[in-house]
Design brief:
about 35% helix; about 450 residues; single chain; 4-stranded parallel beta sheet; 18 strands; globular; alpha+beta
Length: about 450
């Protein structure tokens, strides 16, 4: 890299993001409110330069990077999560850097605005209504029909998503909400769920992968109230050609409806009995686990591809030629004090297993799995067919044997042991988004980076 190399401005990135940008030949400038935070600190050590700045404050951000407009080299701002993607788009537009239009990212951030547009432009409408007052929630839910889902119009990461089975559920939720919650209430879509990764250049959208997403709804007898927790992914999804093509068409129509012009996107789809239906779409890649699976399955590095595309650098070649199947299953340990996990070495040694991690230290209590992903660990594997992939993942999980300390006092109703097996429209411009909401999003992104 030289002083004339293009500059990638990275907002609170993970270390892997910095590595990917440097790998395609970009100079890297890391911006974060606190450069010493875990995760960000490691990214700073890999970067060419770093600046402490609250990038949720647009004037501060412009002061920090405005000088880049005077450089002969191309520059662009990158955000790879909900809040940072929106802020990066506004900065790129203000400085006339390459990037996605701010309006497109705003549409993909506002679920109600996007839903309205997609309903008009496709043959796959989904019933929905806005709900801007908690007192109106019961009536809105009744008009949409039960079961239905209530979620924030600008939320992300599966946070604060509620399944409402009845008017009683809606009434209970309304009592917990602020007076003006800004929700979207939409029909519950029943069927298998898929995540679609795409890259856009000059308004042309390339589908990179369709991933099967697993959760409690895939397990017989599972409580539907946990429908949002992810338990695993398979890539590519094992689909017939007609279903795959209909998913592709829905995703392209969604991105066109939003005005997506460039960069990465992730679109979530449910394949119902009537065909694919949109859940939501985002102007940033999906979960880190999906990035990793794409690299394992196809050799494509999403971040490297995005940076190279925006900065006019040579596009990276896939790490290998022949695609394969890749999958991940998240582990959910029993509650209590973890004394050991037996069988780890044997599971790691299985043919096809690429990585296996137990996130809970031995000797500590297993935390409650309250996030969208049960974060007690994971196993990833590759195989030559979807059937072989499922067999490898299942065998690895079945090989693991958690050893829990006996309870210190008799429990009235001990919980059954948990299985480790994982088969499991108003537009809102950035200027109108409350600063505290953006700051909380930054904290969440930096926590994810760690």
């Amino acid at each position: 890299m030289t002083p004339q190399s293009p500059v990638a401005v990275l907002l609170s990135p993970r270390p892997a993001v910095v590595e990917a940008a440097r790998r395609v030949g970009a100079r890297t400038l890391v911006l974060a409110p606190d450069l010493s935070r875990p995760g960000v600190r490691e990214a700073v050590a890999l970067a060419d330069q770093a600046i402490t700045v609250d990038w949720t404050d647009h004037p501060q951000l412009m002061m920090a990077i405005g000088h880049l407009t005077n450089l002969p080299a191309r520059a662009a701002v990158f955000g790879f999560a909900e809040a940072s993607a929106l802020i990066a788009a506004r900065a790129n537009e203000a400085l006339r850097f390459p990037g996605n239009p701010h309006a497109a990212v705003a549409y993909l951030t506002d679920k109600a605005a996007l839903r309205g547009k997609v309903n008009q432009l496709t043959g796959a409408p989904v019933r929905f209504e806005h709900c801007d007052r908690a007192a109106h929630l019961v009536a809105v839910a009744e008009r949409v029909g039960f079961p239905c889902v209530a979620k924030p119009r600008t939320g992300s990461g599966g946070q604060d998503v509620h399944l409402l089975r009845s008017a009683a559920d809606a009434s209970d939720l309304a009592a917990q909400l602020a007076g003006e919650p800004a929700l979207i209430v939409e029909e519950f879509l029943d069927g298998p769920e898929f995540s679609v990764e795409a890259n856009s250049r000059a308004g042309e959208h390339t589908i990179l992968a369709v991933t099967r997403k697993y959760g409690p709804r895939d397990i017989a007898g599972a409580d539907i109230t946990e429908h949002q927790r992810t338990t695993g992914y398979d890539m590519p999804a094992d689909l017939d050609e007609d279903t795959r093509e209909r998913i592709h068409q829905l995703v392209v129509a969604t991105l066109n409806a939003a005005g997506q012009r460039s960069g990465l996107s992730q679109t979530e789809v449910i394949v119902t009995a009537e065909g694919p239906r949109l859940i939501e779409s985002h102007a940033h890649p999906g979960a880190t686990a999906v990035h990793d699976l794409l690299r394992l399955a196809t050799g494509i590095d999403l971040i490297a591809l995005s940076v190279a595309s925006a900065l006019g650098l040579p596009l990276p070649e896939p790490a290998f030629g022949e695609p394969r199947w890749a999958g991940i299953r998240f582990l959910r340990l029993p509650s209590g004090l973890l004394e050991a996990v037996e069988g780890v070495a044997e599971a790691r040694a299985l043919a096809g297993v690429r990585e296996l991690e137990i996130a809970v230290p031995v000797g500590s209590h297993v935390p409650e799995a309250t996030s969208r992903v049960a974060g007690h660990g994971y196993v990833t594997a590759v195989a030559d067919s979807p059937q072989e992939l499922e067999a490898v993942l299942r065998k690895a999980l079945d090989t693991l044997r958690p050893v829990m300390a006996p309870p210190s006092a008799p429990a009235a109703a001990p919980a059954p042991p948990a299985a480790l097996s994982g088969a499991m429209a108003r537009e809102i411009p950035l200027a109108d988004v409350p600063r505290e909401m953006l700051r909380e999003a930054v904290k969440e992104e930096e926590h994810t980076a760690a």
